[in-house]
Amino acid sequence: MFSILWRLDRLSRFGLGLLIFLILLGLVGPHLPLGDPMRIGAGPRLTPPSWQFPFGTDELGRSFLPRVVDGIRATFLLSAVAVIITAVIGTLLGMVSGFFGGFADQLVARGADILFAFPAILAGLLIAAVMGPGQISAIAVISVATLPLFIRVVRAVTLGLASRGFIVAAQVAGASPWRVMMVHILPNIIGAVIVQLTYALSIGMIIESALSFLGLGVQPPYASLGSLLRQGSAYLTFAPWLVLSSGAVLSAAIMSVNLTGDAVRDALEPLKGRSLT
Amino acid sequence: MTAPLTPVVDLDRIVVTYGGGPFRRDGFQAVKGISLQIAPGETVGLVGESGSGKTTLGRVCLGLQPPSAGEMRFCGEAFGALRQRRGQLSVVLQHPEWALNPRLKCGRSVEEPLVVLGTPAEERRARVAAMLENVGLGASFAERFPGQLSGGQRQRVAIARALITEPRFIVFDEAVSALDVSVQAQVLNLVRELQDQHGFGALFISHDLAATRYISHRIAVMYQGEFVEVAEAARFYGEPEHPYSRKLMAAIG
Amino acid sequence: MSHIVTCENLVVTYRASNGPVRALDGVDLTISEGETLAIVGESGSGKSTLGMAMGRLLPAEAEREDGRMDVAGQPVFDIAANDLRELRRDLLGFVFQNPMVALDPTMRIGRQMQRAMGRRAGSEEIHALLERAELDDPARVAKSFPHQLSGGMAQRVVIAMASARTPRLLIADEPTASLDASIRDKVMGTLCRLRAESGASLVILSHDVHMIARHADRVAVMYGGRIVEQGPTGRVLDAPVHPYTRALLKAAAGHEKPGDWLTPIPGTPPLLSARCAACSFEPRCTVSEENCHTTRPEPREVEGREVLCLLAGTQTEPKEAAR
């Protein structure tokens, strides 16, 4: 496992390093002496960055740096929870679809197509309208948007595996479909799932930010990178540091996930190299 | 080799149609009414080009492909579901690199049919060790992963897995086709020896007539879903009857 | 007779994570213009490495350590990338085991043929080439995608592409191994006919002894990265001299009688990490003697062929008929 680290190129190492740094920052952020993200009037309103307030202050005089660190955590946590739940569901559905074929396959594959054709933001508005804005609906929207990614890949890989000797031999030996899937298929597709997981995570972060930007995700006074962006956009002309800081961190976060995803894919499929598609 | 025993596999006018359904009549007949009996201890070779339906017929014998018409009897009874036939039949397939689950140690692959049967762990370990010895590998191979093995060794592990439950019937589908000549001879000899020991009936599917006639007692030549010739293997050392069989013979030279 | 390939003491090593692997351990070989040479050997014998070395088509971790390989008078390991490209394009043609891998799945056959010919050839020219490769309906084939063709047809397309520029050397790596037994001989026949028409040389890499017996003028048997026996096909296959050739022929099904047992070769082929200082077949040899273990055999002329065996021709062993 660690030998993979040695094979990474500089770009991948940078991405992985950035990702680890951001996750650590999100985790230990509340314990760092950065100031209280909730304290109103910690300083004057909308002051530019200074030693005391490295990212400036917002319209309520809250220090912006601890709010961004809080936002990192909210964005990562929310997307990660959503994507992991989705990965489990999608992997199971994809395996069932690819292994059993027939009617179950038609049902799952066509369902995935429909979900895939559905614009995520529209789905988000619908779900938020039904369930009300908040973290639960944000998770639901991310799941709906990324579920087809998992189903499609897992189904395709499972189809390729299903005719291999060890799967057929297990079936002939009378192993139950559940056993075949858990013992023989899952361990052999987990790499593909992990690669898909990183892509889904970056999509999930974008969706979470978009929803929060629209006011449908994380609700005040809590912050996510998207809601901070929205907050800052109102003062873009005379306090650009709000948008710049939260936007830069959001871009960095998504970039780090994507670079890490590429690195994972390259490590698992060393022959294919880095392609543009 | 026409022993007066109940055949392990008895195919009665088997038809397999693909793509047809209750609402469609344009199905493709991969197997067109084939009858065949395989006696215990007998190996029947099945040769033919790809697309001749030989793999489909093999899948019927394994209970993986329900026939569209006709009946398959196993040891004199209706076949039923694969789960009822646990431990009674098994398969060895082409492509040694895919024969074994790359994530499992060989020992776990070999013992799987016993796990499915519910054999206690203690007994499983002993039988796996004995079977690995039996196929000429040695018990230490139980701890190895397939990636550390050569093609011939993997195929031996696959044969050990196929034999572990002492099945009555084994299908070998192109089981030696991907192996080097000298390794092929090892594996073919191993199968012959093991059959003498264990007395299973076997269907040996291959496009390689030389290997098939070496290992089989009888050979069925399949062409476009039908048998064009079924004869004793010795016949294929001389002059077989059907022109297509002779064409296959020509490839051996 | 001039030589299209001259290979002298060629040594090729693969760098691997657990140390170097010496795939070619000093190969001496010449191929005459217009001859068909079969290189026989099991996987790991080095035959593919030797075949690919003729076009310097070796993976990046392969390194030529010693010796030289001249193709059409050019030292392939020492010429500039540009010259190498020209050599591959104009003088060499390759046919690989699996035609479906050799063909681009996203492109119609006609366009791929055009690329192989290297110019905007008219459809009539393309059809003529396909027809020469004995494809019955060239117009339909040219319009097809690779997946719409059978394995045999696809391999004929590959053969047509390989011979499109009338190369002087065709290299075929297990050209019929992935095809049905019933059509193997015909496809091989096509390849040999095209070779004869153009007067090119043909190198067949294979372990199918029966096929080689029918199509090759000369056979080179490889073991442990060296050619252990080479000579006229009839002589080598009917009366092999090297113990390995004999063992290989006895292990192959096809010439036994009903009820006979095949004799497998015990043990496994060697994985060399350095120059082999002895006979590499010695550990598996049934007739070896003391000095086989200590002396590296050099090519000798025995019974009309070149053999790498210290004992060949000296022993009075029971004549074992291979057939």
Automatic annotation (TrEMBL), chain A:
Q: Where in the cell is it found?
A: Cell membrane
Q: Where are the transmembrane segments?
A: 76-100, 112-130, 189-214, 234-255
Task: Could you list this entry's UniProt keywords, alphabetically sorted.
Answer: Cell membrane, Membrane, Transmembrane, Transmembrane helix, Transport
Xref: Gene3D superfamilies: MetI-like
Q: Which GO terms describe its biological process?
A: transmembrane transport
What InterPro entries does the entry give?
BP-dependent_transpt_permease, MetI-like, MetI-like_sf
> Listed GO cellular component terms?
plasma membrane
> Record's family?
Belongs to the binding-protein-dependent transport system permease family.
Write the protein's name: ABC transporter permease
Automatic annotation (TrEMBL), chain B:
> Domain of life, per the record?
Bacteria
**What is a biological process (GO) this protein takes part in?**
transmembrane transport
All residue ranges annotated as the ABC transporter domain in the record: 9-249
What the entry lists under Pfam families is as follows: ABC_tran
Q: Which UniProt keywords apply?
A: ATP-binding, Nucleotide-binding, Transport
SMART domains xrefs: AAA
- Identify a single GO molecular function assigned to this protein: ATP binding
Family, similarity comment: Belongs to the ABC transporter superfamily.
The entry's protein name is ABC transporter ATP-binding protein
TrEMBL record, chain C:
Q: What is its EC number?
A: 7.2.2.11
Q: Which residues form the ABC transporter domain?
A: 5-249
Q: Where in the cell is it found?
A: Cell inner membrane
Keywords attached to this entry: ATP-binding, Cell membrane, Ion transport, Membrane, Nucleotide-binding, Translocase, Transport
Q: Name the principal localization, coarsely classed.
A: membrane
Which domain of life, per UniProt?
A: Bacteria
Annotated membrane topology:
Peripheral membrane protein
* Molecular function via GO: ABC-type nickel transporter activity; ATP binding; ATP hydrolysis activity
PROSITE patterns in UniProt: ABC_TRANSPORTER_1 (PS00211), ABC_TRANSPORTER_2 (PS50893)
Gene3D superfamilies referenced in this protein's UniProt entry, alphabetically: P-loop containing nucleotide triphosphate hydrolases
> What GO cellular-component annotations does this UniProt entry give?
plasma membrane
Q: Which CDD domains match?
A: ABC_NikE_OppD_transporters
Stored SMART domains: AAA
A GO BP term here is:
peptide transport
The reaction(s) annotated as catalysed by this protein in its Swiss-Prot or TrEMBL entry are: Ni(2+)(out) + ATP + H2O = Ni(2+)(in) + ADP + phosphate + H(+)
Q: Name one Pfam family in it.
A: ABC_tran
Do you know which PANTHER family this protein is assigned to? Answer: NICKEL ABC TRANSPORTER, ATP-BINDING PROTEIN (PTHR43297:SF13), OLIGOPEPTIDE TRANSPORT ATP-BINDING PROTEIN APPD (PTHR43297)
Its quaternary organisation is: The complex is composed of two ATP-binding proteins (NikD and NikE), two transmembrane proteins (NikB and NikC) and a solute-binding protein (NikA).
Query: Could you say which protein family the record assigns here?
Result: Belongs to the ABC transporter superfamily.
Protein name per its UniProtKB record = Nickel import system ATP-binding protein NikD
Question: Which taxonomic lineage is given here?
Answer: Bacteria, Pseudomonadati, Pseudomonadota, Alphaproteobacteria, Rhodobacterales
